[in-house]
Structures are given as C-alpha cells and as structure tokens.
C-alpha cells in the first residue's frame, strides 16, 4: 500500500469536511460509522503491518504475521465500544492530518476486565472512554504492545 497516498486521501477527506462545515454553519459533516471504522482499520493495518480480515469479521479485524488476532477500534468521539473480549486491541483517534493518535495498544483482557460484573447494555456493546483507555494503556508493558513499522519518507 502507498502510505503517503493513503494519508493524503484521508487528509483531503477531512479538508472537504471542513470546507462543507464552513459553507453550512451549524451543520456537521464529520465522517462516522463504517467510514471511520474502515479508515481506522486501514491506518492501523498499514502502521503495524497487519493483514486485514474481510469486513465485518466476527471478533477481530486483522492478524499479525504470527497469527495474533487484533481488534481495531477507530473513533472521533470520546469513547470506544466492545461487544466481546478481544485477544488484542488497538484503539486510535483519527486526526484530520491523515495520521492517528494511538489511545490503547495491548491485550484485550485489560479492557474487558473494566466491564466485569456490569450488565450488558441493551445495544449489546460496552462503552469505555478514551481517557480510561489511556490510563489502561499506561499499564501495558512495552513488550506486550504491537510495534509500529517505520515508514520510508
């Protein structure tokens, strides 16, 4: 994949959003839903050298070269949702520059433990704030994180 081209396209998308919002004050054109999820999955797969699974794969979005199953969550809001305990999770916040901020990179167990003893919400998804994920991320040993793959300039 052409990393620079992908980043440029994401940047163009967010630039278009800004222009539309300037043209129509009070209207929001923020990408959401499937688009944010797909952009996030592709950004993470590229940055961590992961193989993406087919869209809507149950339980995980990508695998490492060694077969580790990775659930990828991308957001532009203040929280992320989980339906089940992932083996491994990477949660990111997409930036308008086409880059992303890594919020959490580590074992899914740490996240899932936060829901222990809580009833499953009616929509079937537990919510966790990005702030809480950042706290959990600080507890992850660096050896248990997926390393980013350096990109050529």
Topology:
Blueprint: H1 3-23, H2 34-48, E1 51-52, E2 62-63, E3 69-75, E4 79-82, E5 88-94, E6 100-107, H3 108-112, E7 126-129, H4 130-137
Parallel strand pairs: 3-5
Antiparallel strand pairs: 1-2, 2-3, 4-7, 5-6
What does this structure look like?
- This protein is an alpha+beta fold.
- The chain has a single domain (3-144), classed as PvuII Endonuclease, Chain A (3-Layer(aba) Sandwich).
- It is 32% helix and 22% strand.
- It contains four helices and seven strands; from the N terminus they run ααββββββαβα.
- The chain has helices spanning 3-23, 34-48, 108-112, 130-137; strands at 51-52, 62-63, 69-75, 79-82, 88-94, 100-107, 126-129.
- The strands form two sheets. It has a five-stranded mixed sheet with strand order 1-2-3-5-6. Strands 4-7 form a two-stranded antiparallel ribbon.
- A hairpin with a 5-residue loop joins strand 5 (88-94) and strand 6.
- It starts with a helix and ends in a 16-residue tail after the last helix.
Based on the model shown, name its key terms:
about 150 residues; five-stranded mixed sheet; two-stranded antiparallel sheet; globular; single chain; PvuII Endonuclease, Chain A; 4 helices; alpha+beta; about 20% strand
How would you name the oligomeric state of the polypeptide chains in this document?
Answer: single chain
Helix share of residues?
25-40%
Largest sheet: 5 strands, mixed
Average pLDDT reading: 91
Tell me the number of strands.
7
Low-confidence stretches: none
Query: What percent strand?
Result: 15-25%
Separation, N- and C-terminal Cα atoms:
14 Å
Question: How many helices in DSSP terms?
Answer: 4
